[in-house]
Design a protein that fits this description.
Chorismate lyase; homodimer; alpha+beta; 264 residues; 32% strand; 6-stranded antiparallel β-sheet; DNA-binding; 2 domains; Arc Repressor Mutant, subunit A; two-stranded antiparallel sheet
Chain lengths: 264, 264
DNA sequence: GAGTGGTCTAGACCACTGT
DNA sequence: CAGTGGTCTAGACCACTCC
């Protein structure tokens, strides 16, 4: 026999998928469900936690439990990098207005709240030193990003980017957080100091969110995150940027195109 | 104040990371931990479930709870596709011996148990029909794979691949499961019927495992899986293969290289 | 059969949100 | 303050593994 919590979860899942409990609706409160299913609180909560891990419902302490709008997963494409490179040398007027996040989501600049903080006194720890191929303790510019969709409460993703301080300091504008959001993105910033990217390497793992990540991404218990490390390598083979991003696992879809060389 | 289960989980995590509870060792049994931390069973189990979700421990009903060997995450690279394409036209002797899974892991053919099942009477459902761009009901060859590392209990991944039946039937060998593992992989199989791939598109999401997936991948409660859909497109623009793979989220690392075009 | 983890109960009390 | 979900307890009984 399947467990009680499995059967309760399956029953509620069916009610959601068949529209009996429509998107946005408040779920019956725990006391009602307890009466309805005649189980103990622990059993009921286990069933609800299962649905929350699937991203079907969203529990809010003190407010209630709600059916999630079947949110389109945010698509993050690998072609964004070539697209960004193509625009990096355009005049500012053409760079302005939309960035790669807008391209991926099909939304406009104004739909986003985009906030960045700059920390010009970061230093490379062991992990970053290895990723860059530089000595531990090298001075870095650290930038943290948080991209929030105005229509929603929770950020799409969190990001931390690292650049080698001495490499970029030749353009003081790049050290200044008030220039954000920079039209054309990082690849244009690098272009202003004569750097062209050759390739980008991305490494993706899945893991449970940290406490802070779960909080700021408004992740329900049980939902994993994508942790993505992007390493940008320029045409001379140097690592010029290392960036770590976190995306909610229930809201994100990663999309990669691998172009193959023709047979001769 | 942090919760009790958070403090217990943090304490045990520290003991594991500091080597007090070494990899492979059995964790103290629940009754001991209950005495040690003076909490109720539900609280203790919540702490242990948290560690299991992180992949630090592995619970086995009836046997005990064990510290996981800090297993290297299996790296699955995007360059494997180009590598496989380069080998697709080599004579059989050179194709034999190692495939792309071996290349990614650095292991030899003999380290794997590789099993495949063929279902020549599959038909395209709505989802597959859309992915292929063919009518619903079109006949497909479905192949399911399970790659098991002999040194470990659990499979590295599960896979289901779909090919259009009429497209590949011109080479009857391709319809025969007993030819597996086919030296040179799917790209060589396609080469035998005159198909060259132009590009591969991969779509990755994270979600909780189904009951069957959790069972066959030996996934602990709370660990998410990567669900990867690979779509292969040939030089004429046709979709020639659609393959879905499932990887344990705590054991897998996806690696992508995005090569950029030079500025002119 | 002894020992392990898995399910489940019936409660108590706490913390957060809104009015 | 009323109403919601979050934490926690002290038990009972079940299911699986191994000797």
């Amino acid at each position: 026999m399947a467990t009680k919590y499995d059967r309760i979860a399956a029953d509620l899942r069916r009610k959601i998928q068949q529209g009996e409990l429509p998107p946005g609706a408040q779920m019956p409160v725990e006391t009602v469900l307890l009466r309805e299913y005649r189980v103990s609180l622990a059993t009921l909560r286990r069933a609800l936690d299962q649905l929350a891990a699937e991203g079907l419902i969203h529990k809010q302490h003190g407010r209630g439990t709600f059916v999630r709008t079947p949110r389109q997963r945010l698509r993050r494409t690998s072609t964004r990098h070539q697209w960004e490179k193509d625009r990096a040398r355009l005049p500012i007027g053409e760079r302005f207005g939309t960035g790669s996040a807008e391209r991926d989501t099909g939304l406009q600049m104004g739909d986003f709240d985009f906030s960045a903080e700059y920390f010009p006194d970061a230093v490379a720890d062991e992990d970053l030193a290895e990723a860059f191929g530089i000595p531990v303790g090298t001075r870095l510019l650290e930038r943290t990003y948080r991209t929030v969709l105005k229509a929603e409460e929770s950020p799409l993703g969190l990001g931390r980017s690292f650049l080698i301080y001495d490499m970029i300091a030749v353009n003081p504008e790049l050290l200044d957080a008030s220039s954000e959001p920079w039209p054309g993105g990082t690849q244009n910033q690098l272009y202003t100091i004569g750097i062209e990217l050759d390739r980008i390497e991305e490494r993706v793992i899945s893991r449970p969110p940290s406490l802070e990540e779960a909080e700021s991404l408004r992740i329900d218990p049980g939902v994993a995150v994508f942790a993505l490390r992007k390493v940008s390598i320029d045409t001379t083979g140097r690592v010029v940027e290392v960036a770590d991003s976190i995306f909610g696992g229930d809201r994100t879809e990663l999309h990669y195109v691998i172009q193959l060389e023709r047979w001769k």
